[in-house]
Amino acid sequence: MLQSKVRDGIIGLCVGDALGVPVEFQSRHTLRNKPLTDMIGYGTHNQPAGTWSDDSSLVFCLMESAAAFPQVDLYDIAERFVNWLDKNEWTPHGVVFDRGIATASAIERYKELCIRPDLAGGITLNSNGNGSLMRILPLAYWFKQETAMDRKELVSKISSITHGHPISKIACVIYVELAIQLIEGQSLAASISHMQETVLTLYKDEQPNNMKPFERVLKGDLALLDEGDIESSGYVVHTLEASLWSLLKTSSYTEAVLRAVNLGEDTDTTGAVAGGLAGLLYGEKAIPSDWIRKLARLDDIQQLCNRFEEAIRPTY
């Protein structure tokens, strides 16, 4: 059961990522006039169909570290990020073709300054891109049996390798708490409700300025918002809202990820973040098989899912 849930989420994320790669940076207006309806190739990054981006690469780095060190080794995670950036490890075709500025800068800081990994991520308000949110899904499996407070600390430390501002860390905790409920088989509505209750309790003493950006996620009803109320930039709160909104407005994996990608702008990450949750909600069997078959390095991804599941099994 767990293995299928691992593949549900990870394949779901990777497919969403690959759908968004060819149209990254296209505007919503452009995609409204010519919406994406299938997994295509080339486009923005001139990559073949099924090519995933840094979003999935860093997910796979996290999973490899968990498979090697189930008790969490921040230095190992950071070194795997370095090997991705410098040595093209866990890339779809042997080269890094896309990288977030904040993520790359944090990895360079870790490498050049020899600092503790969880002190490498940016901590200014302008450092709240979606680069840690996009890779955080494996932690929902890895830390599922930890207490909510311990999970919060672990997720925050791993976010901080690249993104150390409280807003980025809170977004990651929200995503992991929601994903855990979906792994448990709860409905989307029940999962959101449980996540809201848990996160509001965890952050009851947090600075108001850090919580205010999440009011629509934690206290509002995103499903009532129109598309025009949803933004899809690389800001972590926008990505989180756009992904949840896309799930709430649709009733299948395919609809959810296409809705997310067709919001435009940071299409690969919105697709990945929505795709991971949609995969958990609907299952791998709901993902079009043609899309899965097109994924670069599919065999490697499936084998990694197996190794990851085997390594973390004692935590379940």
Automatic annotation (TrEMBL):
Pfam families in the cross-refs: ADP_ribosyl_GH
Cofactor(s) essential for the protein: Mg(2+)
Cofactor mode of binding and number, as noted: Binds 2 magnesium ions per subunit.
Annotated keywords: Hydrolase, Magnesium, Metal-binding
Binding site for Mg(2+): 53-55, 266, 268-269
Family that this chain belongs to: Belongs to the ADP-ribosylglycohydrolase family.
Name of the protein: ADP-ribosylglycohydrolase
